[in-house]
Write a structure and sequence with these properties.
Layout: H1 8-14, H2 25-35, E1 42-46, E2 59-60, E3 70-71, E4 75-78, E5 88-96, E6 110-114, E7 126-129, E8 134-136, E9 139-142, E10 153-154, E11 165-167, H3 175-183, E12 188-192, E13 196-202, E14 206-207, E15 218-219, H4 222-233, E16 236-243, H5 247-260, E17 263-267, H6 278-285, E18 286-292, E19 295-296, E20 300-308, E21 311-318, H7 322-340, E22 350-355, E23 366-375, E24 381-385, H8 395-399, E25 402-406, E26 418-423
Parallel strand pairs: 5-6, 13-16, 13-17, 14-15, 17-21, 19-23, 22-24
Antiparallel strand pairs: 1-12, 2-11, 3-10, 4-6, 4-7, 5-9, 8-9, 18-20, 20-21, 22-26, 23-24, 23-25, 25-26
Helix pairs in contact: 2-7, 4-7, 5-6
The structure holds ligand LQZAQKY5 and molybdate ion.
Molybdate ion is lined by residues 296-299, 319, 321, 324, 391.
Keywords: Magnesium, Metal-binding, Molybdenum, Molybdenum cofactor biosynthesis, Transferase
GO cellular component, one term: cytosol
Domain MoaB/Mog: 198-339
Length: 428
């Protein structure tokens, strides 16, 4: 990252009513938008490697697409001015195929057989589809009313005119954008360098896969959900494993992560626990704030910047509970990383559904309930929770197809009330 970044204190001073001990979810995103700076480094990649990448520059169309007026149908090209409310009989002068211009001249009362995509012969502006005409040798007859002047003709540049902006910097390239770039004859494109994100799990009770189970210990699941969430975003992941709660190991992991990554994600050790060196090490190595967010799950979270070897990495210290990790990632880390990746930040489109059950909800915090949205027989969308909402319970997350987002000021939800759902489809 290039320009001198603001300190957390400076950012906090910009935000009215900033209280690290009682932050609303919206305020967290305001803070992160000021903390995280877009990557400015770019690279040129081939179109096949550009899927999911973020455009570094606007793309201006070097050519017009389509490059000539052409037919949208297989049929006969004619002069629209000759159409009347009576049957029209024309004499066919030949066939225009896609890929080369038809060379002859066409006079009044004449037409040209034409294929879809073929250049419109000079003077002709309308195409009647073949299924509407009667052909008898060279004679073509069409009934009145089947076409209007200009029908079934695609105009030069109707998709894009040469010199027009085709794609905007910050757009994430999807399949349609790859096709559009190719339609402009562009074999390569400038994209933002892929963001590098390092992550590790902390805690003495956390077992790595392959270790035998032992009393009081649990297998690390957070590294795998974080891996999945990051990979879905198209970032380059740096997996630093499970780091035991020892200062020297934590210091080495943080320094390694800060030297190699644009952002660091950890899980665990950010709450009030005593046997924990994670917070102390974050504090020692960087400019870090410890928050209590008015949300459920995902209350405690550390945020800041670690500097190492002249570069700076953003730190997201997520709470240890497995569902809190996923929810804080989706609510905060994902938009922050989109910004870091140089992408336009896309707030997820929330789906409105009727609640199929009553939900208890305290005003004054945002709650994310794991749920499913299904279409009922009467066509309405109904959201229901997927069971145990404990912040350590992943099975109800697996069963969910979205998060029911109960907003900060909202109170209890009654059956039939409208709720908003962040669907996972397309997000995770
Ligand atoms: N007195 C208070 N206690 C707690 C508070 C609080 O505000 N006051 N907040 C609770 C909330 S909410 C959460 S969330 C947790 C977060 O605590 P930590 O971030 O310090 O996380 P840990 O204590 O290390 O772990 C919490 C929980 O998650 C399990 N865990 C941790 N890492 C992993 C992993 N990689 N894979 C699977 N499971 C993991 C860990 O075993 C604990 O059960 O604090 C509450 N307490
Ligand atoms: O962050 Mo905690 O999940 O609310 O248990």
């Amino acid at each position: 990252m290039s320009s001198t970044p603001k300190t957390l204190e400076q950012i906090a001073a910009e935000l009215q009513g900033y209280d690290p001990q009682a932050l609303s979810a919206d305020r967290v995103n305001d803070f992160l938008a000021r903390l995280v700076e877009p990557t400015t480094e770019a690279e040129t990649v081939g179109i096949f490697d550009a899927l999911g990448r973020v455009l570094a520059d606007d793309v201006v169309s070097p050519i017009s697409v389509p490059p000539h007026d052409n037919s949208a149908m297989d049929g006969f090209a004619l002069r629209g001015s000759e159409l009347t409310d009576r049957p029209l009989t024309l004499r066919n002068q030949g066939t225009a195929y896609a890929g080369k211009a038809w060379a002859g001249a066409v006079g009044p009362g004449e037409c040209v057989k034409i294929m879809t995509g073929a250049i419109m012969p000079a003077g002709l502006d309308t195409v009647v589809p073949i299924e509407f005409v009667k052909v008898d040798g060279d004679t073509v007859t069409l009934p009145p009313g089947v076409v209007k002047p200009g029908d079934n003709r695609r105009l030069l540049g109707e998709d894009l005119m040469a010199g027009q902006p085709a794609l905007r910097r910050g757009q994430t390239l999807g399949p349609a954008a790859l096709g559009l770039l190719a339609s402009l004859g562009l074999a390569t494109v400038r994209v933002v360098r892929r963001a590098r994100v390092a992550y590790f799990s902390t805690g003495d009770e956390i077992l790595s896969l392959g270790e035998p189970p032992r009393e009081g210990a649990v297998y690390d699941s957070n590294r795998y959900t974080v891996f999945g969430l990051l990979t879905r975003m198209g970032v380059e992941v740096i997996d630093l494993g499970v780091v035991k709660d020892e200062p020297a190991l934590l210091e080495a992991a943080f320094r390694d992560a800060a030297a190699r990554a644009d952002a660091i994600i950890t899980s665990g050790g950010v709450s009030m626990g005593e046997a924990d060196h994670t917070k102390a090490m974050m504090k020692q190595l960087g400019d870090v704030a410890f928050w209590r967010i008015a949300m459920r799950p995902g209350r405690p979270m550390a945020v800041g910047r670690l500097n190492q070897a002249g570069r700076s990495a953003v730190l997201f210290g997520l709470p240890g509970n497995p569902v809190a990790v996923m929810v804080t990632f989706l609510a905060f880390v994902r938009p922050a990383l989109q910004r870091l990746m140089g992408a336009e930040v896309q707030a997820p489109v929330l789906l409105q559904a009727k609640s199929g059950e009553a939900m208890r909800k305290k005003p004054g915090r945002t709650e994310y309930q794991r749920g499913t949205v299904v279409r009922e027989a009467d066509g309405s969308l109904v959201a229901r929770t997927t069971g145990n909402q404990g912040s350590g319970v992943l099975s109800s997350m697996v069963q969910a197809n979205g998060l029911i987002v109960l907003r900060h000021d909202q109170g209890n939800v009654a059956v039939g009330d409208t709720v908003e759902v962040m669907l996972f489809d397309g997000v995770i």
